[in-house]
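Notebook entry, structure prediction.
Reason for the run: the old model in the group folder had no record of what sequence produced it. Starting over properly, with the input documented here first.
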Amino acid sequence: MQITGGSTYIVSLPKKWVEEVSLKRGDYVLLIPQPDLSLLLVPDRVTTRGGENREITLSSVRDPEACVRNIIAAYLMGYDVIHVRLPKSPEEGYTDTIKKITRHKLIGAEVMGETAEEILIRCLLKHADLPLKDAISRMYVLTRSMCTDLARAIEERNPRLLRQIYTRDDDVDRLYFFVLRQLREAVRDRKILQDLGLSTARECLDYQLVARYLERMADHASRAAYVLRETIGEIGSEVLRLLKDLCEECVVVLDKAMRSLYGLDVELANSVIMEAKKAIEVELKAIHVLVRSSSMPLATILYIRVALESLRRLCEYGADIAEIVIDIMIGKESLAGSL
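New structure, fully documented this time:
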């Protein structure tokens, strides 16, 4: 580093890097201060490239499920235009499967064209249209509603409501995929990282885990509703009460976990971890009742056991979110101490 004119510092840039990013004489380069007091060097054209559309053409595959996995992967990698090559003489329902998954699983993705050789998918929703933290909050609200309605469906022995609950999992999945798409774009593009309200790429991992745990919680609520839908009328009153108690415990853990995340409250996060242990106690009580039961069919007992495990796992994922809060705060304290 050199000083010139008594008040200006000059820093030389590595020639190899300048050539790789195609910098020319007169180009602007941004120096962005980071929380750890380092400087991020970004060519100005990188910060203004948001209008471009990234395209990909997916090779044809015979298995429609494999094709769907490729589409989801392309969506998560941030492609805005996805060309899906179709196999010759595809099996019946092949294109219907692709269009259904696109519509039900991927927020903002629309089938814009279809021929015998190709399906064209465009991703129309940008991160500014549904901000990261809003999407995660929506995942929380949906998952919470699944748990509260599950408690009500159990109390009322309502199989219709149970069927409605397990179909809501698709809505949480759609938000989860959209969150992952945003976070992957943020890791690749520093401007998007800042637009999402994040300071460092490490925060992307924290929010990815939060989204993952919420998605898994919705999966377990859906699973519990699914296995109980046909047997709810055969469950004894004592076990029914314990199942309802466990659902309500799930809501308590989830609410506290998300409050601790929003407020970065370590004390509350620690209380969530302790609260989640109550789910194990309720599960064990229900198991003891099942062991003593002689009136319920064996199949019903097995389904109840699956539901109990799912509800207990749901609480454990709430505790995992609380642990992320603790990790975030320890990281912030460590960074502050090193400055």
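Summary: Confidence is low (pLDDT under 50) at residues 47-51.
The old model has been moved to the deprecated folder.
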